[in-house]
Specification:
This protein is α+β, with helices and mostly antiparallel strands and 186 residues long. The protein has a single domain, classed as 3-Layer(aba) Sandwich (Aminopeptidase), CATH 3.40.630. It has helices spanning 22-30, 32-35, 46-57, 107-121, 137-146, 174-185, and strands spanning 6-7, 12-16, 63-69, 75-85, 90-97, 127-133, 149-160, 163-173. The longest helix is centred in the middle third of the chain and has 15 residues, at 107-121. It is globular, with a radius of gyration of 16 Å. It starts with 5 loop residues before the first strand and ends with a helix.
Length: 186
Amino acid sequence: MTGQYRDEQAGIYLRPITRDDTHLIVEWRNSDAVRSRFIYRKPFTPEGHERWLETMVDTGKAIQMIICDSQTDRPLGSVFIRDVDREHSKAEYGIFIGEADARGRGIGTAAAKLMLRYCFQEEKLHRVFLRVLADNLRAIGSYEKAGFSREAYLRESVFLDGAYRDVILMSVLDWEWRKNNAAEEG
């Protein structure tokens, strides 16, 4: 799997999450830099993450990968799809770069492209979507570079930090992904 989901230019690869990654996930998701960009902001605990692994990852309702540095194998962050809906062939995408020195280097865009390839080739999904806070312009730009398109603007959709915040819904469809990849490879 790691050989297939690698981006040498970005210097990363994806590997499946293991229980040994729990301490990193908890540390990363509880950091202010990561938590402030998420809609779900409750503190992460090792027990909560173990429940996530048991009820979501182990059952196939979620697929989570660790983003690793190609040279050192150091974990840098995570990508995942959740609420995998086999009937309608769709899932919700999420990502976070946990290591501060890995942010702002294009790793998020590269990881999103690798995960989309996994979603469409391995999982045979038709639609992958995400929700992003409308003021997270850096993430929106990264998602667009990876192939996502904006499809809805949800005004005052969530209440965070004492205020209502807007959310943008973005998605990519399998045929769009195949068309874009054919253009890149051709």
